[in-house]
Amino acid sequence: MAGRIDQRLKDLGIELPKAAAPAGSYVPFVIAGSLVVVSGQLPLWNGEMRYRGPIGASLTVEDGYAAAKLCALNLIAQVREACAGDLDRVARVVRLGGFVASAAGFTQQPAVLNGASELMVEVFGEAGRHARAAVGAPILPLDAAVEVEGLFALA
Fold first, then answer.
1. Torsion angle of alpha carbons 12, 48, 25, 36, nearest 10°?
2. Does residue 107 fall inside a structural domain?
3. Among 45, 64, 81, 86, which one has the highest count of C-beta atoms within 10 angstroms of its own C-beta?
4. How many domains does the chain have?
5. Distance CA 62, CA 82 (A)
6. Boundaries of each Endoribonuclease L-PSP/chorismate mutase-like domain copy (predicted)?
7. Domain that holds residue 68
């Protein structure tokens, strides 16, 4: 039987991608006590990079928002793995850290990261409200447009 969060995902018409394997010498998540720290996730859909290049040059703020939302879906997929499939264990989204590949002079990183933040509230309700950082960078791994990391508290 599907849990409350799985049902919410279904009701929202949201499908999660397959949790990505690490691309380097690190693990996708670490559980420390009741916290799950999820490594930075890129805008991948089952291994395929969907958004490449800097926001404000080759991509728009809307593209960046969609890329951040896809990163957030990948975060949730990793948390699902950490919780052995039971997303109802997520008590709180504590913090998101977002990195936005930004063209020179681009300053709308918070608007881009809203794609990830708003998805967390859609999926987890009030427990999805979190602290956040939105940082611009000249380039990200694999030429990704956005990368988002997360900290989640488990019940």
1. 0
2. yes
3. 64
4. 1
5. 30
6. 7-148
7. 4-20+30-137+145-154
